[in-house]
Design goal:
Blueprint: H1 21-31, E1 36-41, H2 50-60, E2 65-70, E3 85-88
Parallel strand pairs: 1-2, 2-3
Length: 89
Protein backbone atom coordinates (compact mmCIF):
# COMPACT_ATOMS: atom_id res chain seq x y z
CA UNK A 1 0.00 0.00 0.00
CA UNK A 2 1.51 3.39 -0.94
CA UNK A 3 2.18 5.82 1.86
CA UNK A 4 0.16 9.05 1.99
CA UNK A 5 1.62 12.18 0.46
CA UNK A 6 4.02 13.96 2.74
CA UNK A 7 5.88 17.18 2.70
CA UNK A 8 5.06 20.80 2.41
CA UNK A 9 4.28 23.19 -0.34
CA UNK A 10 6.35 26.34 -0.12
CA UNK A 11 5.79 29.75 -1.63
CA UNK A 12 7.73 32.99 -1.62
CA UNK A 13 6.81 36.64 -1.51
CA UNK A 14 9.61 39.15 -1.92
CA UNK A 15 9.42 42.60 -0.39
CA UNK A 16 11.94 45.40 -0.15
CA UNK A 17 13.80 46.22 3.07
CA UNK A 18 11.57 49.31 3.08
CA UNK A 19 8.30 47.72 1.91
CA UNK A 20 5.37 49.73 0.69
CA UNK A 21 2.07 49.65 2.57
CA UNK A 22 0.73 47.47 -0.27
CA UNK A 23 3.58 44.97 0.22
CA UNK A 24 2.87 44.89 3.95
CA UNK A 25 -0.81 44.12 3.33
CA UNK A 26 0.10 41.49 0.72
CA UNK A 27 2.52 39.79 3.12
CA UNK A 28 -0.10 39.58 5.87
CA UNK A 29 -2.74 38.32 3.45
CA UNK A 30 -0.39 35.70 2.04
CA UNK A 31 0.64 34.62 5.54
CA UNK A 32 -3.00 33.89 6.40
CA UNK A 33 -3.06 31.25 3.64
CA UNK A 34 -0.16 29.21 5.08
CA UNK A 35 0.34 27.10 8.17
CA UNK A 36 3.89 28.29 8.84
CA UNK A 37 5.49 31.55 7.75
CA UNK A 38 9.18 32.46 7.71
CA UNK A 39 9.82 36.19 7.51
CA UNK A 40 13.33 37.57 7.23
CA UNK A 41 14.74 40.83 8.54
CA UNK A 42 17.83 42.74 7.45
CA UNK A 43 19.01 45.38 9.89
CA UNK A 44 15.44 46.17 10.87
CA UNK A 45 16.63 48.44 13.66
CA UNK A 46 18.27 50.92 11.32
CA UNK A 47 16.73 54.32 10.73
CA UNK A 48 14.36 54.21 7.79
CA UNK A 49 13.42 50.56 8.31
CA UNK A 50 10.19 51.21 10.21
CA UNK A 51 8.10 49.68 7.43
CA UNK A 52 10.21 46.50 7.54
CA UNK A 53 9.31 46.27 11.21
CA UNK A 54 5.66 46.96 10.34
CA UNK A 55 5.67 44.07 7.87
CA UNK A 56 6.98 41.65 10.48
CA UNK A 57 4.43 42.88 13.02
CA UNK A 58 1.62 42.48 10.47
CA UNK A 59 2.68 38.89 9.80
CA UNK A 60 2.92 38.18 13.54
CA UNK A 61 -0.65 39.47 14.01
CA UNK A 62 -2.00 36.84 11.59
CA UNK A 63 -1.90 34.24 14.39
CA UNK A 64 -0.04 31.82 12.12
CA UNK A 65 3.06 29.98 13.23
CA UNK A 66 5.78 32.50 12.42
CA UNK A 67 9.55 32.18 12.36
CA UNK A 68 11.42 35.49 12.23
CA UNK A 69 14.90 35.06 10.76
CA UNK A 70 17.48 37.83 11.02
CA UNK A 71 19.72 37.54 7.99
CA UNK A 72 21.97 40.54 8.62
CA UNK A 73 22.24 41.31 12.34
CA UNK A 74 21.13 39.13 15.24
CA UNK A 75 20.09 42.21 17.21
CA UNK A 76 16.81 42.45 15.30
CA UNK A 77 15.42 40.00 17.86
CA UNK A 78 15.03 42.88 20.34
CA UNK A 79 12.51 44.47 17.97
CA UNK A 80 10.18 41.45 17.91
CA UNK A 81 9.73 40.15 21.46
CA UNK A 82 6.41 38.60 20.43
CA UNK A 83 7.99 36.34 17.82
CA UNK A 84 7.38 32.75 18.92
CA UNK A 85 10.45 31.46 17.07
CA UNK A 86 13.51 33.45 16.14
CA UNK A 87 16.54 32.51 14.08
CA UNK A 88 19.68 34.65 13.90
CA UNK A 89 22.14 33.95 11.12
Amino acid sequence: MPSPARGATAGALAAATDPTPQQIRAAAARARTHDVVVVTTANAGQAGRTRQRALVQAVLRTSRRVVVAAVATPYDIALFPGAPTYLAT
